[in-house]
Design goal:
This protein is α/β, with parallel strands linked by helices and 457 residues long. It is built from twelve helices and eleven strands. The chain has two domains: 296 residues, TIM Barrel (Alpha-Beta Barrel); 125 residues, PGBD-like superfamily/PGBD (Muramoyl-pentapeptide Carboxypeptidase, domain 1, Orthogonal Bundle), CATH 1.10.101. The protein is elongated. It comes from Nocardioides cavernaquae.
Length: 457
C-alpha cells in the first residue's frame, strides 16, 4: 500500500500451479515446517527456518521484484537494511513473475540474517478507486454486501488467509511468522460502506491467519486503513479482530513508528512498522534498487537473550589487562573459560595464571598465527574474544555475535557496555576501529571485519 493513491510495487509468489500442488505439513516441534507435494516428496529446507520477522528494531526495505541472491548479498554487506518485504500471494500484485522467490531463496535470506515480511495483496476496498487494474484475472473488490453481517467480505478475508498460509508454508515461512495483508488507502476513511466492509474482511483475515498458527499483520495508509483499525481499537469494538502488528504507510521521512493519524497507545510495545519513504532508487555496493524504506519495531524489538559461560564465569569487561605468569585476577578466569570453550580442556577455572595456563596460551597463540609468548596482550584478547561464527552485523543486530564484537573492541580502548545490541555506542566505536584500520567505516561487521578482529587487529 502507498499513501497518496500512488501505485504500490509488489512481489509475486511461486507459480499458482505450484502453490496449488503444495500441502503444508507442520510438525509438533516449534519452528519446524515441512513441505509435501502431491507426489509425496518432502522438502526439508524449511525445517530450520526461524519465524520471521521475529524480534527486531531497525531498517527494512520493500521492492516489487524479489532481488537476486547476488543483489541481496551485496545489500546485506553494504546497506543499513536487515529486513525485506516480499509479496507472496494475492491476485492484485503488480509483479506477476517472481523467478527468485523460492523455498531456497527464503531459507538463504533467513540463514544470512534477513528479516522477511511476507505480504498478500488481494481484494481491495471499492473506495480505493483503481482496482482491479491488472487485467481480467485480478481479484474483485471487497464485497460491500451487508447480508449476514457482511458474510461475503468475511468469506473473502478467510479465503485470502488460507491462500497466504498455503503459499507461506510452501515457501518455508514457518508458523509463528507474521503474514501481512496490504489494504490500499482511500481518501475518505469516514465512508461507512468501505470502512465496515474493510473491517469485516480484515477481521476474517486476522482470525484465520491466527487459527493457522501465524501472526496477523495489516499494512495500510495511516489516514485510512490504519485509522479505521485504531478507531475500532479505541471504541473497544468486539466485532473487530485487531491484527497482532500494523504496518503504517506514512511518507514523512522519519524513521520511527509514529504518526499523527493514529494514537500512540495501540500496538505497543514492539508491534509496529512504518513505511516512511516511498519509491526511490538507492545504491549500495554498486547495486541500485528502487525501494520503499521502512522502520521496524516488532516482537521484543532487537533483543539479546542472557548468556552464561563455564557455569557462570564473567567474560564481560570494559577493558582486558595484560597478563603474565603469577597474575591473579578475575580476567585470568575469563581467559581460561574462553580457552575451554575453544577446545582447550583440563584448565582449572581459577583466577591464578600458572603453568597450565602457560601451556594452553602458547598452544593457542601458535594455532592462531601469533608468536608464542607467556605474556597475554591486547591483540591476543581481541582475537580470542572474536572467535566464532561471522554473521553480518548492523543496526538492529542482537545476540552473542554482537557481544563478541563488543568484547573485542573493549580489548582496545573503547570501554563499551557488553549488551549484545548493536546500539549507537557500539556502532560509533566500530566506525572508529574501522577507520583506524583503513577499511570502510560504515559500522557494518562483514566477513572482512571479522577476519581482522580474529587476527587481533
Amino acid at each position: 500500500m502507498r499513501p497518496q493513491n500512488r501505485p504500490r510495487t509488489a512481489f509475486r509468489t511461486l507459480l499458482a500451479t505450484t502453490c496449488a500442488a503444495a500441502v503444508a505439513v507442520t510438525t509438533a516441534m516449534a519452528g519446524t515446517s515441512l513441505w509435501q507435494s502431491q507426489d509425496g516428496a518432502i522438502n526439508l529446507v524449511a525445517s530450520t527456518n526461524p519465524a520471521t520477522p521475529g524480534n527486531f528494531t531497525g531498517y527494512g526495505f520493500d521492492q516489487c521484484l524479489a532481488p537476486t541472491q547476488a543483489k541481496m548479498d551485496t545489500w546485506l554487506n553494504s546497506s543499513p537494511f536487515l529486513s525485506v518485504g516480499i509479496y507472496i500471494s494475492g491476485n492484485s500484485r503488480a509483479c506477476r513473475d517472481q523467478p527468485n522467490l523460492t523455498p531456497t531463496w527464503i531459507a538463504s535470506q533467513l540463514a544470512k540474517g534477513w528479516k522477511l515480511l511476507p505480504i498478500t495483496l488481494g481484494p481491495q476496498s471499492t473506495c480505493v478507486g483503481r482496482y482491479p487494474r491488472y487485467g481480467a484475472s485480478i481479484d474483485p473488490t471487497i464485497s460491500n454486501s451487508t447480508t449476514n453481517n457482511r458474510a461475503a467480505a468475511r468469506s473473502q478475508g478467510t479465503a485470502e488467509a488460507d491462500k497466504a498460509v498455503s503459499v507461506a508454508t510452501g515457501l518455508g515461512i514457518v508458523p509463528g511468522s507474521t503474514l501481512y495483508y496490504d489494504l490500499e488507502g482511500w481518501s475518505d476513511y469516514t465512508n461507512a460502506t468501505c470502512r465496515e466492509s474493510a473491517l469485516a474482511f480484515l477481521t476474517a483475515w486476522t482470525n484465520r491467519v491466527k487459527s493457522r498458527g501465524y501472526l496477523s499483520g495489516v499494512y495500510s495508509s495511516a489516514g485510512s486503513g490504519m485509522r479505521i483499525l485504531d478507531n475500532a481499537r479505541k471504541a473497544g469494538r468486539t466485532d473487530v479482530a485487531l491484527p497482532d502488528q500494523i504496518w503504517i504507510a506514512r511518507w514523512d521521512g522519519v524513521a520511527n513508528t509514529s504518526t499523527s493519524y493514529i494514537s500512540e497507545a495501540g500496538w505497543q510495545p514492539h508491534k509496529r512498522i512504518k513505511q516512511y519513504h516511498g519509491g526511490h532508487n538507492e545504491t549500495w555496493g554498486g547495486v541500485t534498487i528502487n525501494i520503499d524504506r521502512n522502520w521496524l519495531d516488532v516482537g521484543r524489538g532487537s533483543y539479546a537473550a542472557p548468556e552464561t559461560h563455564c557455569g557462570g564465569v564473567n567474560l564481560d569487561y570494559t577493558a582486558y589487562p595484560r597478563l603474565v605468569p603469577g597474575t591473579s585476577r578475575p580476567e585470568v578466569r575469563a581467559l581460561k573459560c574462553l580457552l575451554r570453550e575453544q577446545g582447550y580442556s583440563g584448565i582449572r577455572l581459577t583466577q591464578y595464571y600458572g603453568r597450565g595456563l602457560t601451556t594452553a596460551i602458547t598452544s593457542w597463540q601458535k594455532a592462531h598465527g601469533f608468536a608464542a609468548s607467556t605474556t597475554w596482550k591486547g591483540p591476543h584478547w581481541r582475537a580470542i574474544l572474536a572467535q566464532g561464527s561471522t554473521p553480518v552485523l548492523k543496526v538492529g543486530s542482537a545476540g552473542p555475535a554482537v557481544r563478541r564484537v563488543q568484547r573485542a573492541l573493549n580489548a582496545g580502548t573503547f570501554g563499551l557496555p557488553v549488551t549484545g545490541l548493536m546500539d549507537s555506542a557500539t556502532r560509533s566505536a566500530l566506525t572508529k576501529w574501522q577507520s583506524a584500520r583503513g577499511i570502510t567505516a560504515n559500522a557494518i561487521v562483514t566477513a572482512d571485519d571479522w577476519a581482522l578482529l580474529q587476527r587481533g587487529r
